[in-house]
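Backbone-to-sequence.
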C-alpha cells in the first residue's frame, strides 16, 4: 500500500499539485493511524493532507479511484465450486469446441481469475500503453485491450454457451445463474483493465518530464501524442520535409537515366563496327504520380495529418499528388491545398470531416472512389492507403481494392497499428495486404518520414 500511495502522490505532482515532503509524511502518518478499512475516511484523510487549493480537488477526485478502487471492489466468483459433477462434465465438454485462446479466456471467467501481471504487461506493450501519459486516453486504451483479448468473440461464445448447455440438458434456470456469474466476472475483468490502464497512465505522467526532446517526440507513437506534442511536430514537419526534398533531389540527380538500352546502343554504334562507344539508356520518369487515400477517423487523424503535410511540403519533387480523405465516405481534398500552406489545408479538411467513434467504412469509401474517381488511376500511379484497415465489420469491398491495385503501378499501405493486431476484431488488414506491393508500419513521425522516403525511391 505504501508503494501505491507514493505513486499516487507522484501522479498528483505530475498533474500540477504542489505537495511537499512534509505533506507526504503527514499523509502516511494519518493513514497509519486510521487504516484503509473505511474507504471514505481514507479518501478524506488523503485529500486533507495533500490538497491545499480547492481548484485541485477535481484532479484528486479523478486520480483517487484509479489507484484505490481495489479497496472495496467485489471479488470475482468461481462457478466450478457450485457445479455438480454432471454439470461440470457438461461444461468441460462444451469448452472443448473453442480454440485455445478463447477457451483460456472462458476458463478464467469460469474460475473467477483476474488477468495476471504478465498478461497485463503484454497488453500494455501491444497497445502502446507504456508510452502514453495522458489520462484522457484511458477509455480508448481499455477498448484496444479488450479488442486484443477478443472480447467480441468472448461475448458471442457466452451466448453460444447458453444455447449448447441447454441443448445438452442442463437446467435452464441453472444455466441463467451461471451466465449471470460469468457476465459479472467479465465486468470485474473490465474494471481491472480500466484500473490498470489508469494507474499506468498516471505512473507515466509522474515519470514524464515537462518538455520532451524533439528526437524522442519524433519517434513517439501517434496514439500517445497530446495536442501540445502535435503542435511541436507540426513545426518539425517542415524541417523533415526539407531533409527529404534534398535527399530525393540528389537521388534524382544521380539517376537521370534508366537501364542501358541494348538495341539503341547497337544501332547507334553500327558505324563503329558494332563496337559500343556511345551508350544509350531507357528514359526514366523520376517524379512519381501519387494517389493518396487517408483515413481521418479519430484513431488515424494525427497520422493522416502529418502524412499529408509531408507530401504537400515536398510537392515539387512529385509529379502530381491526388489526395483523398475518408471516414465513412470519400472526399477529394487536393483543391484544399491550392495556394495554401500544407498545415492550413489539412486543418481545413479536418474541420470539414469531424471524427467520430466506430463509424469508419473503407469499403463504402472505395465504392465512392470507384464511382467518381477511378479514371485517375493508371499504370503510372502509385496508390497509397494511410489507415489501420479497420472497417467496423462493414464490407471491405476487396473486389474494388483489387481492381485499383491491378490498375496501379504500385500499391502501398501505411499502417500505424502494431502488426500483431492486424486481423484481430474488425481489422481487415490481412485481407487487403496480399494485393499490396508493400505494407509499411508507420507509428511515429520518424517512421512515417522513412516510409515516404522508401515509397519515393521507385
Amino acid at each position: 500500500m505504501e508503494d501505491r500511495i507514493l505513486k499516487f502522490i507522484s501522479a498528483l505532482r505530475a498533474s500540477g499539485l504542489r505537495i511537499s515532503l512534509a505533506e507526504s509524511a503527514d499523509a502516511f502518518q494519518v493513514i497509519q493511524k486510521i487504516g484503509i478499512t473505511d474507504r471514505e475516511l481514507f479518501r478524506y484523510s488523503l485529500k486533507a493532507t495533500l490538497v491545499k487549493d480547492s481548484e485541485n480537488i477535481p484532479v484528486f477526485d479523478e486520480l483517487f479511484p484509479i489507484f484505490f478502487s481495489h479497496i472495496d471492489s467485489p471479488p470475482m466468483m468461481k462457478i466450478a465450486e457450485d457445479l455438480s459433477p454432471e454439470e461440470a462434465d457438461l461444461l468441460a465438454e462444451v469448452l472443448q469446441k473453442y480454440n485455445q485462446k478463447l477457451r483460456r479466456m472462458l476458463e478464467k471467467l469460469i474460475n473467477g481469475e483476474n488477468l495476471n501481471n504478465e498478461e497485463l504487461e503484454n497488453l500494455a506493450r501491444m497497445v502502446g500503453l507504456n508510452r502514453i501519459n495522458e489520462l484522457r486516453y484511458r477509455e480508448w486504451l481499455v477498448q484496444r485491450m479488450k479488442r486484443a483479448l477478443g472480447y467480441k468473440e468472448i461475448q458471442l461464445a457466452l451466448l453460444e454457451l447458453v444455447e449448447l448447455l441447454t441443448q445438452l440438458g442442463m437446467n435452464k434456470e441453472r444455466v441463467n445463474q451461471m451466465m449471470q456469474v460469468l457476465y459479472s466476472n467479465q465486468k470485474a475483468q473490465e474494471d481491472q483493465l480500466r484500473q490498470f490502464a489508469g494507474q499506468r497512465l498516471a505512473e507515466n505522467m509522474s515519470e514524464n518530464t515537462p518538455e520532451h526532446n524533439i528526437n524522442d517526440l519524433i519517434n513517439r507513437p501517434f496514439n500517445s501524442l497530446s495536442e501540445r506534442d502535435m503542435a511541436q511536430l507540426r513545426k518539425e514537419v517542415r524541417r523533415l520535409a526539407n531533409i527529404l526534398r534534398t535527399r530525393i533531389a540528389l537521388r534524382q540527380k544521380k539517376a537521370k537515366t534508366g537501364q542501358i538500352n541494348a538495341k539503341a546502343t547497337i544501332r547507334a554504334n553500327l558505324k563503329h563496327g558494332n563496337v559500343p562507344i556511345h551508350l544509350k539508356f531507357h528514359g526514366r520518369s523520376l517524379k512519381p504520380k501519387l494517389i493518396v487515400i487517408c483515413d481521418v477517423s479519430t484513431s488515424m487523424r494525427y497520422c493522416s495529418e502529418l502524412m499529408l503535410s509531408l507530401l504537400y511540403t515536398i510537392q515539387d519533387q512529385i509529379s502530381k499528388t491526388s489526395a483523398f480523405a475518408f471516414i465513412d465516405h470519400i472526399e477529394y481534398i487536393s483543391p484544399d491545398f491550392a495556394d495554401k500552406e500544407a498545415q492550413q489545408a489539412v486543418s481545413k479538411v479536418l474541420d470539414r470531416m469531424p471524427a467520430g467513434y466506430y463509424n469508419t467504412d473503407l469499403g463504402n469509401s472505395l465504392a465512392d472512389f470507384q464511382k467518381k474517381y477511378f479514371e485517375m488511376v493508371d499504370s503510372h500511379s502509385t496508390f497509397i492507403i494511410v489507415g489501420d484497415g479497420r472497417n467496423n465489420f462493414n464490407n471491405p469491398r476487396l473486389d474494388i481494392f483489387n481492381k485499383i491495385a491491378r490498375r496501379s503501378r504500385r500499391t502501398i499501405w501505411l499502417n500505424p497499428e502494431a502488426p500483431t493486431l492486424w486481423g484481430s476484431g474488425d481489422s481487415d488488414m490481412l485481407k487487403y495486404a496480399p494485393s499490396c506491393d508493400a505494407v509499411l508500419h508507420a507509428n511515429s513521425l520518424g517512421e512515417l518520414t522513412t516510409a515516404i522516403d522508401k515509397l519515393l525511391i521507385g
